[in-house]
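Progress note, project year one: complex with uridine-5'-diphosphate.
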Amino acid sequence: PRRRAFELHSDHLNPGGRIPLGLKAKSMRVLVTGGSGFVGSHLVDRLMARGDNVIVVDNFFTGRKDNVLHHLRNPRFELIRHDVVEPILLEVDQIYHLACPASPVHYKYNPVKTIISFFLDGYCDHKTNVVGTLNMLGLAKRINARFLLTSTSEVYGDPLEHPQVETYWGNVNPIGVRSCYDEGKRVAETLTMDYHRGLNIEVRIARIFNTYGPRMCLDDGRVVSNFVAQALRKEPMTVYGDGKQTRSFQYVSDLVEGLMRLMEGEHVGPFNLGNPGEFTMLELAKVVQDTIDPNAKIEFRPNTEDDPHKRKPDISRVTELLGWQPVVPLREGLPLMVSDFQQRIFGDLKEGDS
Ligand code: NAD
Ligand code: UDP
Ligand code: UDP
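Model obtained:
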């Protein structure tokens, strides 16, 4: 298995003689696709802090340059505007493949308060998940890099087993409105395993459960970002359906720790990466009220089609094999996200006002 490369320090690299000669860890060259997005940019922060050389490939579909702005002047960092649907030639040791239009912005609200769910980017979802993943696997093959796929708990669909274990095959409607995301990731997992089994590529698969934190898109339609932005703007929090459906919310730093352990470890996976703390949407609304504004109102809206009724990761496998488990509970993580949203929402307003 590929390990961190070591090199012998020679005198010309150590002219002052202050650093004792010997083995020094050579920094890793890491590609992060989707690295200017929410999760990707937090991962990039950790890799940069570790001393790696990091290349971000992103088409800025949902990601923002702002998220990685603080690295732009660092010679160890490189940002490439590129769509992974097109082939690319790079030389790296590891590939974290996150690029994917991941947020449910395709669910649009119309003025008469009826949900019309239609796909603005269904084609794009599939193309990125299928062709984009194929290209990154082809890249991994050519340069013999280790490849990590960020899959999703959505591969379990509307699950008939609870909590979800990695061995559960899922319950996905292949022709439903959500299927381009769910099935897109399922295909990406299949491709990843095909390259692993057929071509001996070193791969890792993470199945990520709902994650929140600073730098989430303000208006991407996900529940935590919606509730937080709504409560801050003194708008009612929109609860879809009866609000009794459940999700398990993981703070982004826990996820990044899990992704890095998975990449560095010796197990292919798939591994669930999520926080087993399970909340109904009404309970989540209560946590947001307690954190931001006890008087924040709730407004019920019709639910979207094929909405999974419940979701909660079984993390015994990843805890046993990678020694990972989340450490930030919702009530501790949410305030960190709220201060970031506060600054971005009211900072923007001030800019607009002046
Ligand atoms: P995000 O939208 O913030 O990040 C995705 C990034 O990929 C963005 O920067 C976007 O511009 C980029 N991108 C999209 N299509 C691309 C393309 N064709 N070429 C190049 N770049 C492209 O979303 P995120 O929440 O950070 O998600 C990161 C990964 O984690 C995704 O693969 C997502 O499916 C997975 N995931 C996230 C969650 C979650 O709750 N955040 C849950 C499950 C899985
Ligand atoms: N690919 C890429 N960069 C590389 C190597 C391959 O983008 O450095 C793309 C390539 O264009 C192809 C895909 O990855 O579309 C799969 O490559 P692979 O070599 O596995 O398949 P083949 O080209 O033999 O069909
Ligand atoms: N949801 C909600 N209000 C919102 C946005 C979402 O009640 O403003 C619900 C949605 O119906 C779903 C849950 O929150 O049951 C999680 O939705 P999200 O899109 O965040 O994640 P996913 O469904 O992909 O797990």
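The first strand starts at residue 6 and ends at 8.
The longest helix spans residues 330-353.
No further modelling is planned for this target in the current period.
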